[in-house]
TrEMBL record:
PANTHER family xrefs: IRON-REGULATED INNER MEMBRANE PROTEIN-RELATED (PTHR34219), PEPSY DOMAIN-CONTAINING PROTEIN (PTHR34219:SF1)
Pfam families given in the database record: PepSY_TM
Entry annotated with the keyword Signal: no
Keyword Transmembrane helix set for record: yes
Record keywords, A-Z: Membrane, Transmembrane, Transmembrane helix
Protein's recorded name: PepSY domain-containing protein
InterPro entries hit by this protein: PepSY-ass_TM
Membrane-crossing segments per the record: 21-43, 144-165, 193-214, 359-380, 401-426
Leader sequence segment: none
Native source species: Exiguobacterium marinum
Length: 441
């Protein structure tokens, strides 16, 4: 009886290990790339400020009206099409975004003197890291691959916890690895580091999926359908003309929770559009914030504050003619899903609790790199025939149950779910062929 229970336990272990081992083997290189690029990009704000320090920083006690600062810019670039103006926080300069043919440019103005401090391309020197991190330089297909790898990373953390769990012993022992030798040491360190990192990695991975093509779109749909993100035209005043334009289409520095919100339209009238001074006087949100200018006759002024702390996020739309507030949404107005994802994204980007957040992010990335490297070392140090020995405990029924459980987990991770279904169908097809061959023999 005891031998039966042991064999059954080994069968469960083998069935879970099979998914854990092969998925880890396939996606290990991508995990390394994401960890390296992500850990470096965490410090993008410091790197960019250091690179453009003379432009981006300014000491001032008073500010000129924003229209006066705009005029200083227009004196140097009379034909420029301004798209946005970012009002500065303490020690910063005003940033004007404008189009130079097909290239977005940033020009920086001293808030007190109106002096033009310099102009640069909107593309950062670190933008290549973002492209690699998000698409592996593979465009849309690369984005799907990254999403697939991120989805499987969550499954790997869950299956790994099951494999490392000390059955019949104190679970707290998982947190402190035994000091063994050789492969045993690597196995203990692999499990302990993964366990210590798991909560932070799940937050980072889950929040990263909010930007992905498939899971991100699903999250936006769920948040809109259940009003757990932000309702359309949330906390608005008066009837709104119909619109098919989303906030992310017309504005910069947009919070995740309001990216897919439809933007209300201005009501064209004989009045001239209000100026930027009026816009600034109408809004009272935390600086720095960005004013994106109206696009066309029915466009609106969209004011967003997303670069700082998540709890200070806001998205405000103003009628370009009357200055009326058409909609106003802050972090406090978000639904539960919108709040969770917003905080997760801030943690992911290292903005939630300053430099310490960035250092924690680096530690988690280094932990992921170690887990990948240690898994490779364990594979290289395995005993000859160890995989074949594990196959002795294969149980087709348990294999199917584990496959179905992982498939159910994949329902919340669409691309992973599809890949799991493909593997299960392939496994079923191979199993049928093997059965037919045995019957024929």
């Amino acid at each position: 009886m005891q031998g039966e229970r042991l064999n059954k336990r080994n069968a469960w272990y083998q069935a879970v290990w099979r998914w854990h081992f092969y998925a880890g083997l396939i996606f290990a290189p991508i995990f390394i790339i994401l960890a390296v690029t992500g850990s470096i990009y965490l410090f993008e704000p410091q790197v960019t400020k250091m690179q453009y320090k003379d432009m981006m920083t300014a000491t001032f006690t008073e500010e000129q009206p924003i229209e006066v600062q705009k005029e200083s810019f227009m004196a140097e670039h009379p034909d420029a099409m301004i798209t946005s103006i970012r009002l500065p926080g303490e020690g910063e300069s005003t940033r004007i975004g404008w189009m130079n043919k097909d290239e977005m440019m940033y020009t920086y103005i001293h808030p007190e003197t109106g002096e033009v401090l310099g102009t640069r391309s909107a593309e950062s020197s670190m933008d290549l890291l973002v492209v690699i991190h998000g698409t592996l330089l593979g465009g849309q297909i690369g984005n799907w691959v990254v999403e697939l790898a991120a989805s499987w990373a969550i499954i790997l953390l869950i299956t790994g916890t099951f494999l490392f769990w000390p059955r019949g012993k104190n679970p707290l022992r998982m947190l402190m690895p035994k000091l063994g030798k050789g492969r045993q040491w690597w196995k203990q360190m692999h499990g302990s580091v993964a366990l210590w990192s798991s909560l932070g990695l799940v937050i980072i991975i889950s929040s990263g999926l909010a930007w992905s093509s498939v899971a991100g779109a699903m999250l936006q749909w769920v948040s809109s359908s259940t009003n757990t993100g932000t309702p359309m035209y949330a906390y608005a005043f008066g009837a709104k003309p119909e619109s098919t334009v989303t906030t992310k289409d017309v504005a910069e520095d947009v919070p995740w929770a309001t990216q897919a919100d439809l933007v209300p339209a201005s009501s064209p009238s004989s009045l001239l559009p209000i100026d930027l001074n009026r816009v600034v006087s109408e809004v009272s949100i935390a600086r720095p914030y960005t004013v994106s200018l109206p696009q066309g006759e029915t466009g609106v002024y969209t004011v967003t504050s997303a670069a700082g702390h998540p709890f200070k996020e806001a998205t405000v739309n103003l009628d370009q003619y009357s200055g009326e507030t058409l909609s106003s949404v802050t972090y406090a107005d978000y639904g539960i899903l919108g709040k969770l994802i917003t905080v997760g994204i801030a943690f992911h980007e290292g903005r939630l609790f300053g430099l310490l957040n960035q250092l924690v992010g680096v530690a988690l990335c280094l932990g992921l790199i170690f887990v990948v490297i240690s898994s490779f070392v364990m594979w290289r140090k395995r005993k000859v025939g160890s995989i074949e020995q594990m196959k002795r405990f294969e149980d087709e029924r348990i294999k199917r149950i584990v496959g179905i459980l992982i498939l159910l987990l994949g329902v919340t991770l669409p691309l992973a779910g599809i890949s799991i279904l493909v593997v299960l169908l392939f496994d079923w097809f191979i199993g049928r062929r093997k059965l037919k061959a045995e019957v024929a023999a």
